Amino acid sequence: MFQHYDRFSLQLILIVGAICEVFSACPAGFVFLSSTGKCYFMNTKTLNWFDAERYCNTIGSHLTTVLSSSEEVSIYDYILSPRGYSYNQVWVGLNDISNVGTWIWIDSSPVSYINWAAGQPNNEVQNCGALYKVITFAWYHMPCSELKISVCKYTGSSFVASEGKMYNRHFH
């Protein structure tokens, strides 16, 4: 016997199904943010920018991009703050390593949103971007050799774990 569903019920079923699909797409240890539709990983080990990016790569991601003010707030509110991280400097995937003065995201996303702190970036040779919280988060350019925690962003459907095993959203 077929059950009758109204239009709202069918939409709700589709939405719940989509949410379940998204949640299952985050690798273990990552946090899904509904505001961005992406998965994030907080790496509390302090690393230089290059090692932080390499670490993100081992878990199938990149240092995070920050593509909007709402994403920036979400990273702080849902990734850093609830876990008790009081760090005020966090590596992100912003850099001008290839062409000084031309800032790009490590994953080639367009730099359409910017939140540089006053006086940043200046003409010092500091090629790597970090979220820096004084009162609120803003962007600073820093020497890539400094040690900081980092946030990785995962956007794909599979990743390679550090043990070299392939995982995907169905097998993690």
CATH class: Alpha Beta
Radius of gyration, Cα only, in angstroms? 18 Å
Anisotropy-based shape: globular
The number of distinct β-strands equals 10
SS-derived structural category? alpha+beta
Taken in chain order, the helices and strands follow as: HEEHEHEEEEEEE
Describe the overall structure.
With 172 residues, the protein is of the alpha+beta class. Helix content is 23%, strand content 28%. It has 3 helices and 10 strands. Strands 1, 2, 3, 4, 5, 6, 7 and 8 form an 8-stranded mixed sheet that branches. The protein is globular, with a radius of gyration of 18 Å.
Write the layout of secondary structure elements.
Layout: H1 7-24, E1 31-33, E2 38-47, H2 49-58, E3 62-63, H3 69-80, E4 89-95, E5 104-105, E6 128-133, E7 137-142, E8 148-154, E9 158-160, E10 166-168
Describe the structure concisely.
This protein is α+β, with helices and mostly antiparallel strands and 172 residues long. The protein has helices spanning 7-24, 49-58, 69-80, and strands at 31-33, 38-47, 62-63, 89-95, 104-105, 128-133, 137-142, 148-154, 158-160, 166-168.
Name a few traits of the molecule.
disordered N terminus; alpha+beta; 172 residues; Mannose-Binding Protein A, Chain A; eight-stranded mixed β-sheet
